[in-house]
Write a structure and sequence with these properties.
Shape: globular
Distance between the termini: 34 Å
Number of domains: 1
Largest sheet: 6 strands, antiparallel
Strand order of the largest sheet: 2-3-1-4-5-6
Helix content: 25-40%
Order of helices and strands: HEHHEEHEEEHH
Strand content: 15-25%
Number of strands: 6
Length: 172
């Protein structure tokens, strides 16, 4: 299950983001030591970006840093706190580590870092967000940027997403 998801994520990410370098947008859990399973994951005494650094993603010289929520609805919930985000260029080997960590987190495979990450092609307005063995989201500001992916990887599309995708591409 994990290896299949990881292999597909790597294949799709490269197809969706053909230019190099790839920009990674990474959001660190505000307090990973309080996360469920923190002790088992080794997050009790290390900051999120330190864990990611140990996995091979140096984050000390980002292109940009900001505080914000990971999802819009969190702004209205007093139980959520903003996360530190960093944007940095990564190699494909580093992008693979981020994809691994994303998929591993939701499935429970180790190692993993207490972060959420997306890979981005800023010029084309395309993002790749892998989440678990169920799939990943590839979004774009323009349907034309990813229309070829829909045809090329049709067999991998989730049936419950097909109506929404058809509507989005019909507007193009």
């Amino acid at each position: 299950m994990f290896t299949s998801a990881y292999d597909r994520a790597r294949c799709l990410a490269r197809a969706a983001l053909p230019s190099a370098p790839v920009m990674a947008v990474i959001a660190a859990y505000p307090n990973p030591s309080k996360n469920l399973g923190a002790r088992r994951r080794g997050w009790t005494h290390r900051a999120a970006y330190d864990v990611l650094g140990e996995m091979g993603i140096p984050t000390i010289s980002p292109e940009a840093t900001w505080m914000g929520y990971t999802y819009p609805e969190q702004e209205k919930d007093p139980d959520y706190t903003p996360w530190e985000h960093r944007a940095l260029p990564v190699t494909w080997d580093q992008a693979d580590i981020l994809l691994w960590s994303q998929i591993a987190h939701d499935i429970g495979v180790m190692p993993q870092a207490p972060v959420l990450s997306k890979l981005v092609d800023v010029e084309r307005g395309v993002t790749v967000y892998a989440y678990d063995d169920r799939g990943m989201d590839i979004t774009a500001l323009s349907p034309d940027s990813i229309a070829e992916l829909r045809t090329r990887f049709d067999a991998w599309l989730l049936d419950h997403d097909r109506p929404r995708m058809s509507e989005a591409f019909a507007k193009a």
